[in-house]
Amino acid sequence: VTHDPATAAATAAATAEPTPAHAPLAATATAEAERSLMRLALAQLPLGLSVFDPHDRLQLANARWAELWQVPPALAVPGSEFREIMAHCAGEETEASRHHGPLPLGRVGTRRREWRMADGRHIEVTVTRLADGTTVAVHEDISERRRQQAVIERLARTDPLTGLCNRAVLAQELSHHLRDNPAAERRHAAPAGDEIALLWLDLDRFKQINDTLGHPAGDEVLKQVAERLRRCVRDTDVIVRLGGDEFALLQRGQAQPAAAAALARRVIEVLAQPYALDGQLLHLGTSIGIAVAPYDGTTPEALLRCADLALYGAKAAGRGSFQFFEPGMGGAAQERLRLQADLSRALARQELQLCYQPQVHADTGEVLGAEALLRWQHPQRGAVSPAVFVPLAEQSGDILAIGRWVLAQACQDALQWPASVRVAVNVSAAQFRHGALLRDAAAALSASGLPPHRLELEVTESAMLHDADSALAQLSALRQRGVRVAMDDFGTGYSSLSQLRRFRVDRLKIDRSFVRDVDRDPTAAHIVRAVVALARDLGMDITAEGVETASQRQAVHHAGVRELQGFLYARPMPAAALRALMHSRLGPTETTE
Amino acid sequence: MIEQLVYVSRAAPSLSAADLYDIIRTAHNRNPASGLTGALLLLDGRFVQVLEGPPHAVRACFGRIGRDPRHHDIELRAMLPLSRPDFPGQWMALRCEAELPASLHAPLRTAIAAGRVASGASPQALVALVRAGVTGAG
To answer: Could you give the angle at the alpha carbon of A425 between the alpha carbons of A419 and A426, nearest 5°?
Structure first.
């Protein structure tokens, strides 16, 4: 018996091939040449090959097979029992492979099986059983493939910045642990410690760090936060970075709510310590919302929603605090905070869009301009009214970034329209206060190349009057650049004639509340006529908005208004739809009232 | 000056783990802001609760507790001025039978059953037992 596995296997191959006794000499010579070629091919094959007879005795194998399975040379010979060879195998079939099971006895077919060896190698075996019970198997070392897969899987589970688990892991872990969680209806019993607490936290004041020191500084802070979180939790807890400055902690096997409260307190305290960054000390805080299964919900979705609502409850309670979810949460104040937080991400997530409502000449039907109207398509709530979200954006300061975007987008869209058509953009009081309006408008014009006279800024009376001197200075600077200014919602504020002379706007837009009643209420009609006379006197253009019926149209037309805007002509529409409409003349869509 | 209030009551037969969780989470959500601390024990279907903090907060909280349908037969055992809290940092520690040292079961049962006017049943003794239950010292 040879001790060289290669020779042994080759011997096995040789002996396994019976030589037909009656074959002619020439044929035998050819057969011998073929056999030696086959021996060579088998020895060179990078894959292991084995053939076991119907009685599970080795019939044929190559050297690679013996090498892969580290078969002792004494066993790498024909006739060795499969069972005995396997007894020497330092490894076991993987769980996934066992799960599929071997081919049932007596069945013909092919199966793929996988073994993990004691030294960490993975071997894949493709086993084919022939009709007579002979088993032919191909063996391959797939360690490298498995290693790469493991890396890919780890990357798919990891947040690259912090090395924490990512959102996908949270969903997996939650559904895994929630699946078999016993119900909470244990009478007179204490909570049994099988609760799962989900802590959802975000950093207070993080946005300022990103905005003032830049994203690399923000990233560095997030890494430090992750490191501190690691020191707060137990081994069984899971830390997840949900994205941005949001993190989640999953706590299992402890008495709730006491354990989650203790963890939340610890996290708040630890994250409140100053952060050293480039020799500078930064201060952050955190707010935490907590939901506990099974009490608050038994699905990942329910639990996440509750923790999210509780987070806004915590923010409402004051920064640096935590709150457990309570069924009453989701009330108006929290809803506001929640929406405000969503809004601050809406721009980056491209949830904001502009629609345009044409301004039409009453006699010719010609489109003279279009007012840009901001729309927010919330991923869960659908369309949110500007009346709801604009005040939120003004309060949070997000209005500046949003206003900048609106100006840029509107100028770009207007460039696609005929050169005679203006675009009107609403401007918030906050944009005046921060003095960013002039810069943003100039940037939007130069980036798009839109001639300044085609941009008209619509400013409400109250925004102008808030800080009249500063507003006046900015408006004159804008008008000097050729940008037109319209006073929006005219008639609802308190501007006196003298102020109107001071501001020298290009256009007055009669508020829709007067237009609504102009055909029924003599007072409204009188105001409209007075405004028209005033505008003529001061050399201003005039537009009536909110024209919805033919009778209103007739009344404002009778009062002398020629530029009209309202559902009677067209509803707000996307820029592309308006572009298609531009060359046609718009007439009233309602012929009778 | 803070005030300490001690009462015992009988848990509603339908009381569940979810109810207990709700009682304690509500305490955790409210008490840090109001400065209330204390402990709640549950033994043989009887509650013992100690509430301490600013007098108005203690009384407002007890007013809500009195209307809570999850317990009845409420007996107020003490309402006393206190210089220092007995349960500092405990927004509402909950201990149920299994978590209470066995050696405390009998004295607690006696103290709970004693009633307001029974001789030798001082509220201070009851509070001491609750403290022992919370700190785990038998």
So the answer is: 165
